[in-house]
């Protein structure tokens, strides 16, 4: 009996050891597998933003999923439209059913609702709002699919040769990919081409109604000199981050992709910044990313007239089959022209620059001295004219902020014209269907000491 019991115990011990060995091996295999998957997604690059020199690179040219880093290009095209006067910060962005139905993270605007362009920008740089991204895409591109083509066209013009965009937000799509190097190029382009809007990337929170919405970029305020840019995550991409740093004349743009967690990604970015910022140059070598305004994306934005607040938008999200076909279809070499009116450059007018006191004609004489037959029909309210485009845009922003209620349904834009060999820019608000509506708006503006006059175009 004692021998039998001893044999049973011996067998049990051997069995336990065998099971334990197998379990340990299984844990090791799973650990290796998980580590391999993480390593397969890992990519990083650090570039001196003064000279363009690559200071560090790891899998920087390997294809990766961008996740919400995609919104960097959506914002680039938004800033491009702002700088060209095609939209203003106060322009209303309508939310279609397609935009409102985007999954979180989102702002939560319902179908038919709207927010300003500036609110959309803030919601994207802080909350990484997918619904705002789609709404902006539909505003600027006419449709989400066409905007994705514009994004890819712009990427090519910036030298991002290994990037294809299929949507404006970065939600999973097998046909959408990029590289760490391309994302660094985009980060540098945003800083160089739009310094007037780049400050948005430093925002850590913003007020939406009575709600304070906090951002996802934990390095802002944690690492000295970090002033943006964007975080991103999907299960397929891992945790991504593009960071811009400026300290004592030294500038870096760094990219980390495929992090296993937000914390590990942030720690790796902090390590790279601390290691390579001292090696960066304090001397700039000029623009690192050429800006080509003749690419199809710029042409498409330049030709789109601001839609009114009731512009038609898609009523339903694309079906699964359509999405698959779109993902597989090759992108055209040039974005198709939106089926919207074209802004024609007007002949030389006789207008007073914005720098002087601007007073429009009396209501009984509301006649534009310029032949505007080639412009879209409708009535607009002009508030300024300046040889400086930035001054004209500033006039739009100031007027929109001062008279939000009056211009709630209007869209601001600038129109260039030449006089005496000098290019001037009209600052106008469009979207008034009748002369009475435009005159009423102008009258309300004058009550707020804003000079203006109504024009039919």
UniProtKB/TrEMBL annotation:
Its keywords, alphabetically, are:
Carboxypeptidase, Cell shape, Cell wall biogenesis/degradation, Hydrolase, Peptidoglycan synthesis, Protease, Signal
Pfam family of the protein (one): SPOR
List the Gene Ontology MF annotations in alphabetical order.
serine-type D-Ala-D-Ala carboxypeptidase activity
Keyword Hydrolase attributed:
yes
Concerning InterPro entries, the annotation shows:
Beta-lactam/transpept-like, Peptidase_S11, Peptidase_S11_N, SPOR-like_dom, SPOR-like_sf
> Signal sequence span per UniProt?
1-38
Q: Which residues form the SPOR domain?
A: 373-457
Q: Would the keyword rRNA-binding be found if you checked this record's keyword annotation?
A: no
Q: Give the protein's recorded name.
A: D-alanyl-D-alanine carboxypeptidase
**Organism, as annotated:** Aquamicrobium ahrensii
| Family membership noted in the UniProt record | Belongs to the peptidase S11 family.
Top-level class of the enzyme under EC nomenclature: hydrolase
* UniProt cross-references to SUPFAM superfamilies, sorted A to Z: beta-lactamase/transpeptidase-like (SSF56601), Sporulation related repeat (SSF110997)
Task: Tell me its EC number(s), please.
Answer: 3.4.16.4
């Amino acid at each position: 009996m004692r021998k039998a019991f001893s044999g049973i115990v011996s067998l049990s011990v051997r069995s336990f050891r065998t099971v334990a060995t197998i379990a340990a091996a299984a844990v090791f295999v799973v650990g290796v597998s998980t580590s391999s998957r993480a390593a397969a997604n890992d990519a990083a690059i650090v570039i001196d933003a003064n000279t363009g020199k690559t200071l560090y690179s790891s899998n920087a040219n390997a294809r990766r999923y961008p996740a919400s880093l995609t919104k960097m290009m959506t914002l680039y095209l938004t800033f491009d439209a702002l700088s060209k006067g095609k939209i203003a910060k106060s322009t209303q962005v309508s939310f279609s059913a397609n935009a409102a139905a985007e999954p979180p993270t989102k702002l939560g605007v319902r179908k038919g609702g709207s927010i300003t362009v500036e609110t959309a920008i803030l919601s994207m740089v802080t909350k990484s709002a997918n619904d705002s991204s789609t709404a902006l895409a539909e505003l600027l591109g006419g449709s989400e699919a066409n905007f994705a083509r514009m994004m890819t066209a712009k990427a090519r013009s910036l030298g991002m040769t290994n990037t294809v965009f299929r949507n404006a937000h970065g939600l999973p799509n097998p046909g959408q990919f990029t590289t760490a190097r391309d994302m660094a190029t985009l980060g540098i382009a945003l800083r160089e081409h739009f310094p007037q809007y780049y400050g948005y990337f430093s925002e850590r929170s913003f007020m939406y109604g009575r709600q304070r919405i906090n951002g996802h970029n934990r390095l802002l305020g944690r690492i000295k000199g970090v002033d943006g840019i964007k975080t991103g995550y999907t299960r397929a991409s891992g945790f991504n981050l593009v960071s811009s740093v400026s300290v004592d004349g030294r500038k870096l743009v760094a990219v980390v992709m495929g992090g296993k967690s937000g914390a590990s990604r942030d720690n790796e970015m902090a390590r790279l910044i601390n290691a390579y910022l001292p090696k960066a140059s304090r001397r700039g070598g000029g623009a690192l990313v050429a800006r080509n305004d003749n690419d199809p994306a710029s042409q498409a934005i330049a030709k789109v007239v601001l839609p009114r607040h009731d512009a038609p938008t898609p009523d339903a999200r694309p079906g699964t089959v359509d999405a698959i076909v779109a993902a597989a279809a090759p992108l055209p070499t040039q974005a198709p022209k939106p089926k919207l009116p074209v802004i024609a450059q007007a002949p030389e007018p006789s207008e007073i620059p914005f720098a002087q006191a601007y007073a429009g004609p009396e209501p009984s004489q509301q006649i534009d001295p310029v032949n505007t037959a080639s412009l879209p029909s409708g009535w607009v309210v002009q508030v300024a004219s300046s040889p400086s485009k930035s001054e004209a845009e500033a006039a739009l922003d100031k007027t929109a902020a001062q008279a939000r209620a009056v211009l709630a349904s209007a869209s601001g834009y600038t129109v260039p014209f030449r006089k005496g060999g000098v290019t001037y820019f009209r600052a106008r608000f469009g979207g008034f269907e009748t002369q009475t509506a435009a005159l009423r708006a102008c009258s309300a503006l004058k009550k707020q000491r804003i000079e203006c006059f109504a024009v039919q175009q």
